[in-house]
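Key idea: predict the complex, not the pieces.
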Amino acid sequence: MTLCVRSTWLALAAFDDWVRTPVDPRPLALFRCWFGFLCLVNLLLLWNDMPMWLGNDGVLPPATHLLLQDGTRFNLYMLTGYNDVTITLIRWLGLAGGLGLLVGFLPRVSAFAMWLAVSSFSWRNMHILHSGDNLIRIGCFFLMFAHSDEAFTLCRWIATRRAGVGLKPFRQIPAWPQRILQLQLCVAYFVAGIWKAMGVAWQSGTAVGTVLQLGEFQRFPIPDWVMTPIVSQLMTHGTLLFELGFPFLIWIPSLRMPVLLAGIVFHAGLEWTMNVQLFQWLITAYYILFLGPLFSTSTQTTAVGPAATTAGPACSA
Amino acid sequence: MASFLHTCFAIASRWPTVLVAAYSLAVLSWSMPASLFPYKSSLDAITIKPLIFLNLWQGWDMFSPEPRSEDIWIDVLVIDRDGSQHHWPLTHMIEMPYFDRWQKERWRKYFNDHLRLDAERTLWKPFAEYWLRTLQTQGHDPITIELTRLWHPTHIPVSAARRADLYRGPWNRFVFYRWTASERGSR
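Result:
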């Protein structure tokens, strides 16, 4: 009993330490840049169709939309009501937010702008959303609280160029926004794996072969050898293994890079065969948050922010 | 008193840890199947409102628990007053150029996953009326708009002949909504 209590206490202390020990800002900053770019692409893909999906004269007029409501969601329409001017606001907020995230200009405000834009079109037409939109809303929300402007910003780059000296040392930042996004990715994989593992087709190994017969998801041509029962079984069970294994194996330092590489191969395969727009790009963008060790051997870092003052100077992954 | 305040301060200074743990537990509970997560109903009852209000709701159950066992697409047939007929294969993705099918993924989502379903019949008339307005701006004068769903089953065991980029019909078809000019006044 005492051993059990002690072990639990040690585990909680380690978790607390992991959340509160400041980290190198570069993984989060690099994530912000790439994520911002993907948010922009997502917005531009939707741009022309916005009047159709979101407009009062579109496919979902206010009277019909009201019938589909459940719960209160913070979004622009709370301020504007059903008004097509909101489409313009969504476009420009999203554009400014995406660019701001990409170049690191006022990244917290930019993250808020993008979050508000995506939340607004998500509220106005929930039937057009894909899992990539989930990742964007969640990523932007926690970037609002992150010190992601401590590295890889246009201002920093210009200042360094003007000063004519080498890069200033990076200051360490509070870790919790990065930690929450890392755990979010693990939850997403784990839950996806659990849902799949409940299905007969996933258990029997026919699920991937079935999905590859669906023209509605078809992207680029696939070779004949992929469409055999044995390869379907391998890919189906490989998917389960990867999705259920990722949330646990990613925390073992020696396995981290192999797991991330396996994820890249997995999602590259899906990107080739499946037409699900930006999902594969967005979910692998979250991998950048796990690249802390790649940066840890380079430039010196110093602490910044309230949480940083409570812990030591070491960076952790 | 001093030790009580010290304890309070120690707990308060750990708010990031509490937040990270609480959020992770909340979204795990939110996303998990109820049959496998016994605390789901009580946890979700607490977290549902903040997660929805802050737009942090999520779902990760694509292609599960079972992938779709039918390939489907939606077709729109328009008959103009002069008798001419026009087809728009809204979500026949395989017939679209690569960029178009990528850009129109949300079309697939809306039409195949929602508009097609009997359970979402509230979407049918607004869509037909939207299509009507769009066509009128292009000079058409529709008197009938038909929404048709087409489908055919997938096959097991899988084989190369069933690759989605090769497979064509025969398609089952069903007209699930018909708008006629007589409904125009009911808007």
